[in-house]
Amino acid sequence: MSRRTQAPKRHILPDPKYQSQLLAKFMNMIMNDGKKSVAERIIYGALDRISERETHSDEKALELLEQALENVKPV
Question: Is 10 domain-assigned?
């Protein structure tokens, strides 16, 4: 019996607001029961709170999230 061909790799589309694949992956991990809109609301709300501080902008908020994810990765 022959083996089936391998399924093609699916490319993760970047999120629509920040165009970041890392943020899209993080959003998919936060998502529960397929409710992506709830995950988007949670993540975008957190990023908005970070950018509301007078010293941070939207781009800086994304950099802070990327740095936080980098810090919690296993070695």
Answer: no
Residue 51 domain-assigned (yes or no): yes
- Residue 42 and residue 28 in contact, taking contact as beta carbons nearer than 8 Å: no
- Domain tally, the chain: 1
Q: What is the pLDDT of residues 4-37, one digit of tens each?
A: 888 899 999 999 999 999 999 999 999 999 999 9
Contacts of residue 22, Cβ cutoff 8 Å, sequence gap at least 6: 66, 69
What range does the domain containing 67 cover?
Answer: 21-72
Amino acid type, 39: A
